[in-house]
Amino acid sequence: MKAGRLSRIAALLLAAWIGPGSQCALAASAASEHAHADLAADGVRVTVVDYTVPAVTLLRDDGQRVALAHELDDGRPVVLNFIYTTCPGICPLMSAVFADFQNRLGNERSRVHMVSISIDPEQDSPARLRAYAQKFAAGSQWQHYTGSVASSIAVQKAFDAYRGDKMSHDPLTLMRLAPGKPWVRVDGFATGPELIERYLQLATLCQRRPA
Fold first, then answer.
1. Any idea which fold 57-191 has?
2. Is the Cβ–Cβ distance between 184 and 13 less than 8 Å?
3. Residue ranges in the chain assigned as alpha helix (H)
4. Low-confidence residues of the chain, pLDDT below 70?
5. Which residue(s) pair with 115 in the sheet?
6. What is the pLDDT of residue 139?
7. If you placed Cys at 109, which of 88, 93, 105, 114 could pair as Cys (CB 3.0 to 4.6 Å)?
8. Contacts of 54 (CB under 8 A, 6+ apart)
9. What local confidence, expressed as pLDDT, does residue 205 receive?
């Protein structure tokens, strides 16, 4: 990726950390328009969005019933996508990218919470999700979730991922460094190296945040 493009993405991610009310964020928002144009050529678009995690209960792949908001607010950065186990195309590709992403994290993987939420909860039981996760060698930091149809739709709508039918869903990855911070939304087929690059940029910028 070109240096100019990296600097524009960095500005966009810095805005996500500092917050929408700061002068730095306003300057970064202008730079982000150029970043969108550059990234569109690769079929991947990056935006920064405020989402409210819905108050829903899901079933984790270990069979535990959990509150989604609590799961996402466990103190770790979150990297999230939507999948279903019988998906013929998009989902295996996204899961393969997540597998590559976790491998590239190396020893740091336990510090990141990777989340895959089923959009076909009628078929995707915890047992089926565990079998699916094994295909991609998912580590303990990468968990899969299912639940009721209503809860699945509520989560999809909250993250602007609901398209009315599981066959119509789009490739999407969401990242958030900490509770209360905006989400970095990556639309399109980002590769493992692209995801790790954006994650590391976000983490680095946040470590250098102003006092």
1. Glutaredoxin (3.40.30)
2. yes
3. 3-18, 23-40, 68-72, 90-105, 126-135, 149-158, 192-207
4. 1-42, 204-211
5. 80, 143
6. 96
7. 105
8. 68, 69, 154, 155, 157, 158
9. 61
What does the alpha-carbon distance between residue 30 and residue 25 come to, in Å, rounded to a whole number?
A: 9
Rounded-to-10 torsion of CA 34, 37, 41, 42: 70
Which region, left, alpha or beta, applies to residue 19 given φ > 0 means left and ψ of -120 to 50 means alpha? left
**To which residue do tokens 């597998």 refer?**
99
The answer to whether the CB of 80 falls within 8 A of the CB of 167 is no
CB 144 within 8 A of CB 107: no
Letter string b/e over residues 160-174, b meaning 16 or more CB atoms within 10 A of that residue's CB = ebbeeebeebebbbb
User: How far, rounded to the nearest angstrom, does the alpha carbon of residue 136 sit from its chain's CA centroid?
Assistant: 17
Single pTM value for the model: 0.79
Whole-angstrom distance, CA of residue 11 vs CA of residue 29: 8
As a whole number of angstroms, the distance between CA 145 and CA 116 comes to 6
Query: d(Cα 14, Cα 40) in Å, to the nearest integer?
Result: 20
Q: What pLDDT does residue 43 have?
A: 79
Determine contact, residues 149/122, Cβ cutoff 8 Å.
yes
Q: How far apart are CA 32 and CA 209, in angstroms?
A: 19
Four-residue CA torsion sign, 91, 58, 132, 109: positive
Angle at 91 (CA atoms; ends 85, 92), nearest 5 degrees: 85
Domain ranges of the chain: 57-191
Q: What is the DSSP letter of 204?
A: H
